Amino acid sequence: MTEVSQLPTPLDWTSDEIMTVVAARELTGEMVCFVGIGLPSRAAILARSTHAPDVTLVYESGCIGAKPDRLPPSIGDGVLSRTADAVVSVPEIFSYWLQSGRIDVGFLGAAQVDKRGNINTTVVGDYDRPSVRLPGAGGAPEITTSCGQVIITLRHSARAFVEKLDFVTSVGHFEDEALERQREKHGHGPQVIVTDLCVMRYQRESREFELTSLHPGVQIEDVLAQTGWPVIVSDDLQETAPPSNEELVALRGFTEGDQASR
Amino acid sequence: MTEVSQLPTPLDWTSDEIMTVVAARELTGEMVCFVGIGLPSRAAILARSTHAPDVTLVYESGCIGAKPDRLPPSIGDGVLSRTADAVVSVPEIFSYWLQSGRIDVGFLGAAQVDKRGNINTTVVGDYDRPSVRLPGAGGAPEITTSCGQVIITLRHSARAFVEKLDFVTSVGHFEDEALERQREKHGHGPQVIVTDLCVMRYQRESREFELTSLHPGVQIEDVLAQTGWPVIVSDDLQETAPPSNEELVALRGFTEGDQASR
Amino acid sequence: MNARELTLCEAVAEFVHDGDTVALEGFTHLIPFAAGHEIIRQERRDLTLVRMTPDIIYDQLIGMGCVKKLIFSWAGNPGAGSLHRFRDAVENSYPHPLEIEEHSHAGMAARYQATASGLPFGVLRGYAGTDLSRLSPTIRWITCPFTGEELAAVPSLSIDVSVICAQQADRRGNVMMWGITGVQKEAVLSATRSVVLVEEVVEEFTPHVNGVVLPSWTIDAVVVVPGGSFPSYSEDYSERANDFYAQWEGISRDRATFDAWMTTHVLETKNHEEFMASLTVSLASRHD
Amino acid sequence: MNARELTLCEAVAEFVHDGDTVALEGFTHLIPFAAGHEIIRQERRDLTLVRMTPDIIYDQLIGMGCVKKLIFSWAGNPGAGSLHRFRDAVENSYPHPLEIEEHSHAGMAARYQATASGLPFGVLRGYAGTDLSRLSPTIRWITCPFTGEELAAVPSLSIDVSVICAQQADRRGNVMMWGITGVQKEAVLSATRSVVLVEEVVEEFTPHVNGVVLPSWTIDAVVVVPGGSFPSYSEDYSERANDFYAQWEGISRDRATFDAWMTTHVLETKNHEEFMASLTVSLASRHD
Fold it and tell me: Do C117 and A85 touch (CB under 8 A)?
């Protein structure tokens, strides 16, 4: 039991923690969420255990309705299959569950992102002779086009938020309007990017991600300095509500559980 | 226990019984057999319980390796799923198991058949205003083209053995040589027709089914009279070996079991 | 949104409308007879029925004039005879004309798979040389962009509502079926709305080989109808009434006999419990 | 023909040849580490490896020079870091150049499904606008003959041998796996030859939710290797050695460290039992 005297003070959080907490808040109600590994999974599990207990988690490993009570170190962890409502094959999860349009929200990380929410998780540098070879596409290309909407979450840096991607692994929003209308038939694509500095939301008018909320203590200039394109700042720029004690206690509970399970 | 004194004498069998017994003999060794309902199922179960215990039975209901000890009144009977090595969905049985070329022998009935082993199970008369509406294709079109070979079994009559089918539900062998070579890539098609009068086998030279064996007591003329095309009689015409006592006892055991289970 | 628990009467009233495309799926096992009878009692009209293996319950729906069109791959009473009401509709347009769209099993299975996968068409190696492929506008040809091979293409289905039987639901409305599960998962995942009839609600599912679970949020309504598949069967709950299937030949062949049977056993019973009692008495008397 | 029971050494010797296309499938759960190590010990060369999620065992095969080409959709050590031997091969052609053919998960899954179905290609709604579709000759476009919609097509795979882990075999050589079963069934049904490593042979399978059974006649060899997936895991038999996955980053980053580790734990152990003992000692010592 965590005693009251040990509860964190409102300022006692890391930049990774606020990123997770703010990402978690994007999940609400009875959303069905397709969860990637790492921060997306942490945020989705946090959402389920705090404000959004009715969110359904679907993992590409085939686990539908998993109810993990700790942070799985991988998306193929036994805690996911053992707590799932149903476990299906990997081909089935991509055909009958993802491609069919049954998923409300996709939750993705990225190595690079651009102002249209295009994602690179393939290479840094030239494809045939990369300076850094990244893991590759995984589920991302079809998650971005098949889910009702997509939440992207990654740490903010000029290396990650680039004017031009080295490689387009997944398309967020097309520049071409006809192509964009075509993709909208099956889902609205990335709608929000949550970082350790801020929240950016996709605006149909400008057709790009605009800065809509700064985390406490972060200045506009901090975001501009870490973003490789000229960021549009929303007229209605907000300050992000800091992580509540409840959110932080829940999040740290997982993380400890995760460490303990090792 | 059937006592020795009650064993049937060699002549004590019906025309349906010899048809079943002779069809059963076509299954040997470790063949994997895709079984239709009715006579094909009866013959396949008989084969497994007499000379071919290692034959694997696959049913389109999704039951793989079913080991029924009685005659199931339908291909969706519980005795099939309960004794199967694996039960899969109907889409899977047609894609991963049949279409993939994993089945050695398909075992089909028919309402009409022609000299090339084409089958009609759709209509008698005109398609749009049939005099008799039959059940339709079922699994037949893809069974005939996907299995290593196909055994057809039906009662011999001039109404069934026709010069020209009212409707081609499944193609046995194409008249066109190029098409025939194409279909041979995935299976050899119907190779034998077993009836209550005789056995007919497909001959590559004549490209049609020839009369190769007469059941005991049947004359060539009987077959010719009940066949709507001029039948080629094999130079090596045989007399079918009559059902053995062992075969008949086994077959009647099932039939009784089937009646008893009702 | 999770499934709601409704009565069968409520579920049919809310989810099955005149003119709908409806799949009451099942493969010998787990046929949703109770739902078909309730559709007949509620006098739905102009339905397009979809099923790989339409059997007696579809024969009844057709004979009672509920059906405008049938999409199917094998219409018979397996091992027992014909569907005479289906035949009468096709052969004699009685009680009215029946439009048909027919496929092979492999083709129908591919259509269900494509639909459940959100694809506009499915691909199979099939239909080559058949009259079905010559006549049907729903069979076309497609060329493999890698090998040049020609394959058959079939369009996805547009199903308004699917109704299936499963053995169990849990408290949250997830359902589980086992034994022969046919194409029922695809039917539910292919439909805009879905209703699942279950034998009972349990606290926790017990594991079964080939157990298929559909999560609550893929289903609109769960309906508890013990014996809802009778005279079909529900593995581990009931046996198939094979006698009745054999008798259907005699009942369905004649229009008047059929009408009388339907009146006695379906129209004059107010729910599935009464139907089961009525048919069980009838089956017992024929044994005597 | 039913599966034969072989030792791992025999199975690799008989079924995995130089130049083969090999799929050692598994999705975090049930990774056939023991088979990968035996392939390294038997010094296979010029392999084309196929897997949706190549992980540490593929990193080891690549680093040990067994691999000519990799067909995959996500190559990483999930939640723990990079596959440095894979990266070194792609970035620096060390120990020699590695040809790659990459897809998305949905694309690879469609390829496996097509192959298991005996079709020359699979169809998916995917890849639109991606650089992968621009660069890869294994992604083409196909038009729905009913709606005119453009969809992606991917070719089937040509797999010589698939190796998977399952929990159990029965006396007849049928195998059963449960928990997360990934794409393993498709891998076996896609391959010309297949080898299944099992924890044990049992008289009778106990039912499991999501239990997947592969009949004996679809498998060439069953190999009993307790803990054969270690340091991955086998649901209800073992736990994943998450520590080791975290340590791999440090082991694999440096060529010499990697070589030393492989020598100690794989080349100088003569079978999986010795490997497990060796790694367990090493993991315990790092905890101290």
Answer: no
Decide: C231 and C17 in contact? Cβ < 8 Å. no
Residues of A in contact with D233 (CB under 8 A): 78
Kindly determine whether residue B56 and residue D215, on different chains, have CB atoms separated by under 8 Å: yes
- Cα dihedral D139→D140→D144→D147 (10° resolution): 90
Of C142, C102, C129, D191, the C-alpha closest to B189 is C129
Residue B102: which residues within 8 A CB-CB, separation 6 or more? B32, B96, D189, D218
d(CA D260, CA A56): 45
CA–CA min distance C10, chain B (Å): 30
The whole-angstrom distance between residue A157's C-alpha and the CA centroid of its chain comes to 16
SS3 D282: helix
d(CA B256, CA C14): 47
> Chain B: nearest CA to C31, how far in angstroms?
11
Model confidence over D117-172: pLDDT tens digits? 999 999 999 999 999 999 999 999 999 999 999 999 999 999 999 999 999 999 99
What are the DSSP E strand ranges found in chain B?
32-35, 56-59, 63-64, 86-87, 105-108, 112-113, 119-120, 123-125, 130-133, 149-153, 190-194, 198-203, 208-214, 233-239
Q: How far apart are CA D269 and CA A94, in angstroms?
A: 39
Among C186, C187, C198, CA closest to C228? C198
DSSP B6: G
Would the CB atoms of C208 and D213 count as touching at under 8 Å? no
Range 19-58 of A in CB contact (< 8 A) with D: 37-38
| Contact predicate B5/B31, CB 8 Å | no
Asked if A96's CB is within 8 angstroms of C215's CB, the reply is: no
C-alpha to C-alpha distance for C143 and D150, rounded to whole angstroms: 14
Q: How would you write C36-73 as a 3-class SS string? A: HHHHHHCCCCCEEEEECCCCHHHHHHHHCCCEEEEEEC
Mutual angle of helices D56-63 and D242-253, in 10-degree steps: 30
- The phi, psi pair for C90, rounded to 5°, reads -75, -45
Confirm if C245 and C29 have CB atoms less than 8 A apart.
no
Contact D108, A101 (CB under 8 A): no
Half-sphere exposure of A138 (CA within 13 A, CB side): 30
Across the strands, what pairs with A34?
A: A58, A106
Measuring CA to CA, which residue among B181, B183, B174 is closest to residue B143? B183
Q: Set out the domains of chain C in order of their start, with CATH numbers.
A: 4-103+158-281 (3.40.1080.10), 121-155 (no CATH)
Q: Minimal CA–CA distance to D252: which of D94, D88, D92, D99?
A: D88
C150 reaches D (C-beta below 8 A): no
Residues C173-207 as b/e (b if ≥16 CB within 10 A, e otherwise) read bbbbbbbbbbbbbbbbbbbebbbbbbbeeeeebee
| Token pair in block for residue B83 | 């004794």
> What ipTM goes with this model?
0.96
- Domains of chain B listed by start with CATH number: 4-195 (3.40.1080.10)
D216 in B contact zone (CB under 8 Å): yes
Residues of chain D whose pLDDT is less than 50? 288
- HSE value, Cβ hemisphere, 13 Å, CA-based, for D43: 2
Which pTM was predicted? 0.96
Cα–Cα distance list, B33 to B70, C91, C149, C251, D215 (Å)? 18, 35, 27, 35, 14
Q: Which of B32, B64, B99 sits opposite D118 (nearest CB)?
A: B99
Chain A residue with minimal CA distance to C170? A85
D215 close to B (CB below 8 A): yes
Is pLDDT above 90 for A24? Answer: yes
Contact: A56, C117; criterion CB under 8 Å = no
pLDDT tens sequence across B226-258: 999 999 999 999 999 999 999 999 999 876 544
In terms of C-beta density within 10 A (0-12 exposed, 13-18 middle, 19 or more buried), how is residue D243 classed? middle
